[in-house]
Design goal:
alpha+beta; single chain; globular; 6 strands
Length: 198
């Protein structure tokens, strides 16, 4: 198997079960897989769709439809994305516009990082830039999506994605007790700050 995130995870699990595993990477420049070397691309999903293409299917139209399907699955199972800049921008799920287009009544919880009292880590590392935004279902309190531009956003988004996949309501994430001082403490303030609702 290749030496990307999935390969390393499977290799570790198989090793813990007493199995021998060989990791084979097609290039000595790809240590760690595609994501850290090229950029995270759902290549296996795209290859799967490409293999279903018939000779009479127009290539460009097939590619665009495949990308749309992969993106739809990514949103459905709450797969997060991060743009590694300073501070990082991490997203998961639906945007406010997408949620409304999908027929949801939404409420938006959002705060600039500099105004989040319960996020001392931003001040400890002297980087209170950014904003945290959650798109919530106004009727069910489900978390439909989030966009986090802040210190540790690449870590925070994992907790949000996990909560989304397991049906954890926004109120549960808001009322949880988090390690201090960590960036996850921001969830207490941000999810209590509804800035607009349908």
């Amino acid at each position: 198997m290749g030496y990307g995130k999935g390969g390393k995870t499977v290799a570790a699990k198989m090793g813990s079960l007493g199995k021998r595993v060989v990791l084979v990477e097609r290039s000595d420049r790809m240590y760690g897989g595609t994501c850290p070397n090229v950029g995270c691309v759902p290549t296996k999903a795209l290859v799967h769709h490409a293999n279903k293409r018939r000779p009479e299917d127009p290539a460009q139209a097939w590619y665009e439809r495949s990308v749309t399907k992969v993106q739809a699955v990514t949103k459905m199972v709450a797969i997060s994305h991060t743009l590694f800049m300073t501070p990082p921008l991490a997203t998961v799920g639906l945007t406010e516009k997408e949620a409304r287009a999908a027929g949801h009544r939404v409420k938006i919880a959002s705060q600039p990082v500099a105004e989040i009292i319960a996020m001392p880590r931003a001040y400890i590392v002297e980087d209170p830039r950014g904003v945290l935004k959650f798109v919530l279902d106004a009727d069910t309190d489900d978390i439909l999506g989030a966009a986090l531009l802040s210190i540790d956003a690449q870590e925070l988004i994992n907790a949000v994605a996990l909560a989304m996949r397991h049906g954890v309501k926004a109120a549960e994430l808001r009322d949880a007790v988090y390690q201090h001082p960590t960036s996850t403490e921001a969830f207490n303030d941000v999810l209590a700050t509804i800035v607009r609702a349908d």
